[in-house]
Design brief:
Helices cover about 0% and strands about 50% of the residues. It is built from no helices and eleven strands. Strands 2, 4, 5, 6, 9, 10 and 11 form a seven-stranded mixed sheet that branches. A hairpin with a 6-residue loop joins strand 4 and strand 5.
């Protein structure tokens, strides 16, 4: 079983950037596809980005495409989310998640992910 801990959230002005990090422990990190999700107050948790176990494939939500970049370092057991051109509507708690299915598909549905971190708050001021 893998444990996930997110960091890097904070308060940033619109147009700014943040880099979120998710550190994994307790499992074989390279066995997992990894995803980032977010949840704003009063809204459903939504998919942001995902990356395959070897980093070869990525997927993004429409809102993240062109602004966010997901990457991973299997030697360091970390997955990153670089967020540029941030907007107030990006304000949410951001969660990383691990999918141990080794599917050929990168899932965008939260129920497909097996392990979750506690989340990190991102607030974008206008």
């Amino acid at each position: 079983q893998v444990q996930l801990v997110e960091s890097g959230g904070g308060l940033v002005q619109a147009g700014g950037s943040l880099r979120l990090s998710c550190a994994a422990s307790g499992g074989t990190f390279s066995n997992y596809h990894m995803g980032w999700f977010r949840q704003a107050p009063g809204k459903e948790r939504e998919f942001v980005a995902a990356i395959s176990w070897n980093g070869a494939n990525t997927a993004y939500s429409d809102s993240a495409k062109g602004r966010f970049t997901i990457s991973r370092d299997n030697a360091k057991n970390t997955v990153l989310l670089l967020m540029n051109s941030l907007k107030p509507e990006d304000t949410a708690i951001y969660y990383c998640a691990a999918d141990n299915s080794r599917s050929r598909i990168l899932y965008k549905w939260s129920y497909k992910y097996d392990y979750w971190g506690q989340g990190t708050q991102v607030t974008v001021s206008s």
